[in-house]
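Most newcomers find our protein records easier to grasp once they have seen one. Sequence and backbone structure share a record, each on its own labelled line. To make this concrete, we reproduce a full record directly below:
***
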Amino acid sequence: MSWVSYVTICSFLAVVNYMTCREYAWVLWVMGGWGLRQLIETADYLLARSERTEEHNR
């Protein structure tokens, strides 16, 4: 999934959370877990990309 999907869906869930249960921000669990996965995937992609570039330049 892309960062655009992450932001769009988390924004929607934040609105749902606000409208249904203002006392407990359960959406933060979704944002945190999914955000961590997005960061790991992005870092993995960037590291693999830099390794491919280094191999190509040799």
User: Anything to note?
Assistant: The radius of gyration is 17 Å.
